[in-house]
Design brief:
By secondary structure, this protein is mainly alpha-helical. Helix content is about 75%, strand content about 0%. A hairpin with a 2-residue loop joins strand 1 and strand 2. The longest helix is centred in the N-terminal third of the chain and has 33 residues. About 45% of the residues are buried.
Length: about 290
């Protein structure tokens, strides 16, 4: 019986953990390039999912077209977020930049309510993969799909940052913006691209979680905070560790839900966030102000 409970916890935990991992990668990209915590990351997920929902109602989207539409819209949304927050306040104090992302989060949530209303919307599963079972251990079709989508995104992002000139420029800015500028890299362009990539990751996360929990106007902030917790667990500096932080957080939450209740799960998860903020060490501030 205990094995079945644990298997259920792992199954549901990995499904949510894949989403947290994608959100955490977005936090990590933006933080490393600009030293900014983007609290509008959750609304990137919300709007990405809602637009995909509207497209699916108007058009018959196949798996490839749904992935492309999600990626392109998320990329554009991230660029818009950058242009309306950090892009307008490059020389402002960090607190002002951070509060701009909070304000953007509230504005975009209000826009989502005006356009799509407050009723939950079920996003269809565009990519359907078979479930996996090995003895007592099993993964549902939703979990397999979320994991494959997330792992493919991590692998693609890692290849982009490692193998392309533009990706290496983003990494150079993450390590030292001033030195990167002296080498001919434009840090502002790297920051804008980091926002765009974080928007793409959030939209893909919406594609993974929309069929599981439905899309609600108030889901963005909570999922954004979970992504922040996962990024802090992973330490921000390594894509694989940041993504693993998301998976770990998802499994911890699922175990807490099975052992206690969903309400206590939220309390304990945010208690973990408080503990991380107090005791965890963020990467040293290696870059100069752009």
């Amino acid at each position: 019986m205990l094995a079945l409970y644990l298997a259920q916890a792992v199954n549901s935990g990995l499904a949510l953990g894949a989403v947290y991992g994608l959100m955490a990668l977005g936090f990590s990209l933006v933080y490393n390039s600009s030293r900014l915590i983007n609290f509008a990351q959750g609304e990137l997920l919300l709007l990405g999912g809602l637009v995909l929902y509207s497209l699916s109602q108007a058009l018959e989207l196949g798996p490839v077209t749904a992935l492309l539409a999600t990626g392109v819209f998320g990329f554009v949304l991230g660029q818009v977020l950058y242009a309306t927050t950090l892009g307008m306040t490059l020389t402002a104090q960090p607190l002002r930049q951070l509060m701009l992302t909070v304000a953007a989060s509230l504005v975009w949530q209000g826009a989502a309510i005006l356009i799509w209303g407050k009723n939950p919307l079920k996003l269809e599963q565009f990519v359907v993969l078979p479930p996996f079972r090995l003895g007592a251990f099993f993964l549902s079709a939703n979990t397999v799909t979320s994991l494959v989508l997330a792992v493919a995104s991590v692998a693609t992002l890692s290849a982009f940052l490692t193998l392309t000139r533009t990706g290496r420029a983003i990494r150079a800015v993450s390590m030292n913006a001033l030195a990167a500028r002296l080498q001919g890299v434009n840090p502002v362009r790297a920051q804008a691209l980091s926002f765009a990539l974080s928007g793409m990751l959030a939209a893909l996360a919406a594609m993974a979680i929309g069929p599981q929990t439905m899309l609600r106007y108030d889901m963005g902030f909570g999922l954004g905070l979970k992504g922040f917790v996962a990024a802090t667990l992973g330490g921000y500096s390594s894509l694989s560790r940041v993504f693993a932080g998301g998976l770990l957080l998802g499994v911890i939450e699922a175990c807490l839900t099975l052992a206690f209740s969903a309400d206590l799960k939220e309390t304990l998860t945010y208690s973990l966030l408080v503990a991380l903020l107090v005791f965890a060490r963020l990467p040293q501030d290696r870059q100069q102000k752009v």
